[in-house]
Amino acid sequence: MAIKKSELYSSLWESCDLLRGGMDASQYKDYVLVLLFIKYVSDKYAGQRYAPITIPEGASFADMVALKGKPDIGDQINKKIVGPLAAANKLSDMPDFNDTGKLGTGAEMVTRLTDLIAVFENPDLDFSKNRSDGDDILGDAYEYLMRHFATESGKSKGQFYTPAEVSRILAAVIGIGDSPTGTDTTVYDPTCGSGSLLLKVGDAARTAVTLYGQEKDSATSGLARMNMILHDNPTALIGQGNTLTDPKFRDGSALKTFDFVVANPPFSDKRWSTGLDPLNDPYDRFDTFGVPPAKQGDYAYLLHIVRSLKSTGKGACILPHGVLFRGNAESEIRRKLVRHGYIKGIIGLPANLFYGTGIPACIIVIDKENAQARKGIFMIDASSGFIKDGSKNRLREQDIHRIVDVFTRQDESDPRYARMVGLAEIEKNEFNLNLPRYIDSSVAEDIQDIHGHLQGGIPLADIEALGDYWAVCPQLKEALFQPLRDGYVSLAVDKSVIKNTIFQHPQFAAYLEGMGEHFGVWRARAVPKLKALDKGFHPKQFIVELADDLLHHYEGKPLVDAYDVYQHLMDYWGETMQDDAYLLTSDGWVAKTYRVIEKTKKGKGENAKVVEKDKGWACDLVPKQYIVARYFAAEQKALDETSAALEAASSALTELEEEHSGEDGVFSGFDKINAVAVKDRIKEIGKDADASEELSVLKQWQSGAAKEADLKKALKTLETELDANAYARYPKLTVDEIKSLVVEDKWLPAMSATVAGELERVSQTLASRVRDLALRYESSLPVLVDEVAVLSARVEAHLRKMGAAWN
């Protein structure tokens, strides 16, 4: 059975991280990722003629496994595996597997490397079988590990990885997906790091394109080459060296130019000009626009991008916000770039997205092709769209989609989010491009109304601000509020029934019913698409189409944000549906059960043994509860009734014990209340007439305990029978039954519930706002003054009674 994506990722990370010891993550990643690479290329290409990757004889993963436990394992891996593999495929700067400083000495190194190899020996990690065309599970696993290593590496060493979410935005806004492409289409990243950004742009193209990248750090450039291979781009060209001082891609003495260029250069590089004379730059990068400041290298990289683009080229670069407003030399460069028309757009991103820094950044979108006709710059302030993810912030799927949609459509419908800023306005602001000058994205202040506080009443302006609700339910406003005086209203219902008034109002109920029917329309459209999935389909491509269909289905619907609905589906995809999809693409509509074996290690050293415990069975595609609900509802009902009866019996027994456990209670002398102790006490009492009440309680306890025991036994029998019946049902399931169970019982109800939850949030938001306004203006100042006077008089009276005076 195919391994689930989520299990592959988490097991790799957890296993590898456990073996890391005291080594820094930025160092340990090299060993883990190289091992992952060797395992993958061995599974994929070993023994193949004309493969894009050469696996020398004796240098496969199987040969590495044979070295486990050998005292010279590190040296042997270097000589027999890593060295020949690197030489055959022009891979440089591979990690030293015999480095005692990182891996330990003697037995410590042997154990660490042996255990690390064992992580990748898992039979489920047969990457030749766990990969469908167009959906590279291994490439994604590589990216998953890279992200975790970047998180663990800290600010100074996490810059080798650009978050995938940001990479996807850059790939979209340069328009490569909408452009005709082929192998003659070139994409370049001058500061490519591990290559994740470059790959995302390549993935966004309609057809295969040619990728070029350069990375200064030698070890990281090696990771980039491996990343290209793992993502099925073995012909990508990755150069190693300083892009500004020693660009590797040239046409004669000039820079090579490309169709698309993207980059996430080091922010504010203070050593950018080391080894370079900017005033005499051999590649003419600074002649037209000026030389960047010696201690601020941001524009050096941006101008390198501009110079590396063809006359029809398009690019995007991630830079700190300072490039938008800093003065002096940068101000002049900015002015000239704007006047040349090269800047198509600016996208402001949330702070703390990147691993190398916590400062906010922006994306500068460059378009040379349409520079002459450019009349303005399209600006987006997306700084508030993110979710907290550990110590970092992360863009959600809805944030990415909104940015790309708005930028692609040049959508100005929400001026607090995006607008086209004309060149005249920019010139008026002296070419300062700081986004707050052009987009006010601040949250509107909730203003307190003085007259409302003095005289009472809810300001009508606050009620009218909820106009989206009244547009859908105009009579609901009249049901909630009544006129008080000019410009003010009062609550027409008690505060405690605000929510019920909203939910029970005919117009709101009609709205909810209509939205339910609206989802039903999409559901009816989705069912045949979902049931048509079969082995070999592309899960990534499919979820894009399905989620976009849902997004468009809710666009323009009142009160709900279509992007919020879209996010619910994407969350469910990440939590459950993605794993199901990869099971389907590998195995088809097959509901396979398997035993759940829990392994625990007992003992230490040579005497340690792995103990296995059978924890029952499971089925990932069709979990047991769906089989039970559809085929064994009556049995489940009987089980639930027995469980409820058992709970009631146990509660009654507990109440009896608590009632008679006081100082003089029947159970006060018991060390432990159980059947043996109660039986002994009854025997001790015998026929003592004076103990009749105690005897009655004890026999009542015995009866209750017997009833509880019988119910426990009955429940266990029902559970065993139901478990056996459900387990026996799986082999009898037809393909159509499996499809119905997965699509109609599992997926769509979960999606429906999330959409219903979004509608619940809509109603809760209205109810909460109405209640807040009611409480805010509930008591006017005169009423409060009178209440204070009454309370003061009462306190003064009490003080007089006590013989004290109120001063």
Q: Could you please describe the fold and organization of this structure?
A:
With 807 residues, the protein is an alpha/beta fold. Among the domains are: 1-153, N6 adenine-specific DNA methyltransferase, N-terminal domain (Ferritin), CATH 1.20.1260.30; 159-439, Rossmann fold, CATH 3.40.50; 628-732. 51% of the residues lie in helices and 12% in strands. It contains 28 helices and 18 strands. Strands 3-2-1-6-7-9-8-10-13 form a 9-stranded mixed sheet. A 3-stranded antiparallel sheet has the order 14-16-15. Helix 1 crosses helix 7 (137-153), helix 2 (25-45) packs parallel to helix 10 and helix 13 packs across helix 22. The longest helix has 42 residues, at 735-776. The model is unreliable at 130-135 (pLDDT under 50).
Topology, pairings included?
Blueprint: H1 5-19, H2 25-45, H3 61-65, H4 73-89, H5 100-103, H6 107-119, H7 137-153, H8 164-173, E1 186-189, H9 196-204, E2 210-215, H10 218-230, E3 237-240, E4 250-251, E5 254-255, E6 258-263, H11 298-308, E7 309-320, H12 329-340, E8 343-348, E9 361-367, E10 376-381, E11 387-389, E12 392-394, H13 397-409, E13 418-422, H14 423-428, H15 450-455, E14 458-459, H16 460-464, H17 467-472, H18 474-480, E15 481-485, E16 488-491, H19 498-504, H20 506-531, H21 539-554, H22 562-587, E17 594-602, E18 609-618, H23 624-631, H24 633-659, H25 675-685, H26 692-729, H27 735-776, H28 781-801
Parallel strand pairs: 1-2, 1-6, 2-3, 6-7, 8-10
Antiparallel strand pairs: 4-5, 7-9, 8-9, 10-13, 11-12, 14-16, 15-16, 17-18
